[in-house]
Design goal:
CATH class of the largest domain: Alpha Beta
Shape: globular
Strand content: 25-35%
Structural class: alpha/beta
Order of helices and strands: EEEHEEEHHEEEEHHEHEHEHEHEHEHEHE
């Protein structure tokens, strides 16, 4: 079928919105009409460092199922779905309920092809790579798989929900699933983009006593206060580690590093009490190294990496939808909507910090 998609044809160049041909769904595939797709830091990282070209990116899609292959039983045409990350379901980590750490998912996530090496997209005789995170949702329609789709309630605001599939569940899941923060505890969140602000909202849901947001952008600090932060710190004018210890006494029970910066990670680690936990969420370029005093962790502090908020998407995404519908997780406060043809402006606004979470709305 003919679709419209934002295609990356050259490394670190603008996306080009073009007509493409999408294959019919195979027995294990699901055709989804996309309502909205979040634009994430990972999309921009792969724009600048693609593994294959040309390619359609996008991995935070939400839409309506239009057609299913003969082997698909999880969803049916007409179902509202959020698309999340791809995982095999069979490796040791998947079997233990840790699909975000699937050992077999790298090519399915970044390779741009099916498991047999074929592409889902083409333009005339030219192959166009798709299947990014098992979806490639910068398009009006995608082919995806049962492990990727999460059925959600039909009355949910579908155009808003795509980011639940990655960035939002990463921040909220880090608090609720990974750290399992306790009511009355304290948490410091370093970096108040979409991931960090999702963590702030989740910490409020969990009943944290002290919720401290750290950033250098005044608009993000202000929004963090509105979303549940009890205190905010401008890291450009204050030493956040010192200030967090003043606020909490010994340091925060938990900290999250959402910026992907070595200096910030050290600050976050040194801001937690003994024994506290510092979670690393921020994505840094490969090869980035960090240094800290070994005594920082000698007395029980823990540093742990977190992917996708340790989420099992079929369980956690519907929970987030319920929080949204109850008004307890105001995701709409983070979002700026753009048309698919405005994708390059959305990317610019995201990189400048003007937009916290861009969502591309697809043409009818």
């Amino acid at each position: 079928m003919k679709i419209l998609a934002a295609v990356l044809r050259e490394k670190a160049k603008p996306f080009v919105v073009e007509d493409l041909e999408l294959d019919d769904p195979r027995a294990d595939e699901i055709l989804v009409k996309i309502s909205g797709a979040g634009l994430c830091h990972t999309d921009l990282t792969l724009r600048d460092n693609p593994l294959a070209l040309p390619i359609v990116l996008g991995h935070e899609g939400a839409g309506i199922v239009e057609q299913v292959g003969s082997n698909v039983a999880k969803v049916k045409p007409g179902d509202a779905v959020v698309l999340s990350f791809v995982y095999c379901g069979a490796c040791a980590n998947c079997r233990q309920g840790l699909p975000a750490y699937c050992t077999q998912s790298v090519m399915g996530t970044f390779g741009g092809v099916r498991s047999d090496g074929s592409t889902t997209l083409r333009q005339g005789e030219q192959k166009v790579h798709g299947n990014f995170f098992g979806q490639s949702s910068f398009a009006t329609h995608v082919l995806t798989y049962e492990n990727n789709v999460v059925k959600v309630r039909s009355d949910a605001p579908l155009e808003l929900l795509g980011p639940l599939g990655c960035g939002i569940q990463t921040g909220a899941g880090a608090v609720i699933n990974s750290l399992r923060v306790k009511a009355g505890s304290s948490i410091a969140v370093f970096g108040l983009g979409a991931v960090g602000l999702s963590a702030i909202m989740a910490a409020k849901i969990c009943g944290c006593r002290d919720i401290i947001g750290v950033d250098v952008k005044p608009n993000r600090l202000e929004l963090a206060c509105e979303l549940g932060a009890t205190r905010v710190l401008d890291a450009s004018t204050a030493n956040p580690t010192t200030e967090i210890k003043k606020i909490t006494g010994e340091g925060a029970d938990y900290a999250l590093e959402c910026a992907g910066h070595p200096k910030v990670l050290r600050q976050a680690l040194e801001s937690v009490r003994r024994p506290g936990v510092c979670g690393l969420l921020g994505g840094a370029p490969m090869g980035t190294e960090v240094t800290f005093d070994m005594n920082s962790i000698m007395f029980g502090r823990t540093v742990r990496g977190i992917l996708e908020g340790d989420s099992v998407p079929d369980i956690f995404i519907p929970q987030l939808v319920e929080f949204i519908m109850q008004g307890r997780f105001p995701l709409e406060r983070l979002v700026t909507f753009y048309g698919l043809d405005q994708i390059n402006q959305a990317a610019t606004d995201s990189e400048s910090g003007r937009a916290i979470k861009p969502i591309l709305k697809m043409p009818s």
